[in-house]
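Action item from last meeting closed. Structure (152 res):
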């Protein structure tokens, strides 16, 4: 597989947040009803996934991509993020993964996931009548984003 890997590091802010809305955290603590450990773990995994998606959205907005849909359901798979390219001609489909390590990215992508997401990309290409590029975005806990392009 020929893939291009791009890394980005989140810049640290030099000013303090002026209000609660300026802070990175976007969710409250879980309800006391979440006493089951597996439910709690699933809750926090979902929250980390949402924060990771926000980092990736920022990454692509800085490169002039326009977010079209988030968590788009297709007959083949749910697509985390769908962007319109800066020239407006093509689509970009992004699968977001939260990564604890900064290596072994390809091991995190199962053949079944690839198959489903490539089917979803064909569905988008037919539906929008344009080229669709597939990227995988890996986000570390400190907000570093690594993009693997041209997944096939």
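Sequence:
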């Amino acid at each position: 597989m020929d893939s291009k890997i791009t890394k980005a590091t989140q810049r640290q802010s030099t000013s303090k947040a002026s209000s609660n809305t300026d802070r990175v955290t976007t969710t409250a603590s879980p309800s006391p009803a979440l006493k089951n450990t597996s439910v709690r773990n699933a809750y926090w995994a979902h929250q980390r996934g949402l924060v990771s998606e926000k980092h990736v959205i920022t990454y692509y907005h800085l490169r002039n991509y326009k977010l079209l849909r988030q968590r788009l359901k297709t007959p083949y798979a749910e697509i985390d993020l769908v962007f319109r390219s800066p020239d407006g001609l093509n689509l970009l489909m992004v699968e977001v993964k939260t990564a604890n390590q900064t290596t072994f990215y390809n091991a995190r992508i199962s053949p079944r996931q690839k198959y489903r997401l490539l089917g979803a990309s064909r569905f988008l290409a037919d539906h929008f009548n344009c080229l669709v590029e597939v990227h995988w975005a890996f986000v570390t806990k400190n907000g570093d984003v690594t993009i693997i392009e041209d997944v096939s």
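Note appended to the action item: The chain has a mean pLDDT of 80.
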